[in-house]
Write a structure and sequence with these properties.
Distance between the termini: 23 Å
Strand content: 25-35%
Structural class: alpha+beta
Order of helices and strands: EHHEEEEEEHEEHEHEEEEHEEEH
Helix content: 10-25%
Radius of gyration: 20 Å
Largest sheet: 9 strands, mixed
Amino acid sequence: MSGERIAKVIARAGVTSRRGAERLILAGRVAVNGRPLDSPAVNVTEMDTVTIDGNDLPKREKTRLWRLHKPVGIVTSTTDDRGRRTVIDILPDTLPRTVTIGRLDVNSEGLLLLTNDGDLKRKLELPLTGWLRKYRVRARGRVTEGVLEALQNGPVVDDCRLGPLSVSLDRQLGSNAWLTVGLRSGKNREVRRAMEAVGLNVNRLIRISFGPFNLGDLRPGEVAEVSPGILRNQVSGIRDIR
């Protein structure tokens, strides 16, 4: 069929992710040329008129990417039923609608990527992308060669072996150790769970890089846009950047 799947078109317009677009469609909120859809199995072209809740789909903007230093205590979501502050609450009003690429739990801090392109979000989150995420970790406990080897091989948690981690001991300060940890998967609380499996209790976790993008000298709560040239160079081969 000619054209592109409707959910992909909606995601690339920056409205929501593909999965979010499919939910909008199944809820009857999306129409093509005035006809409400009841299934996402529809292709559209630039000649079609797509509306959501009766409003025209925004024209696709140029893909943009931002680096945010997420502080501790901020939730990586648009809303929180417990009333906690979210990433949306701390973003400047000048930013367009964005979605986060991956997550950081509420007690973690550091680099969080944001984009206005839901399709880019989906692709960068796929395990096949294989981008390394690096963390500085402070943990209570004694780090031995045996502990490092267990982490590098992938510890077993709840009868499930986690993916292997690249890990190095930076320094041991009394009962606390600082480590640099890298992993390519993005399972929920994976670094913390891996550390707990080898007897280490994480008391600070900072993501310092996500693929080729680094936290750098961003202060907590600060956001900076990645230049179009750098974005195009780093993401080419994963996605066409307009």
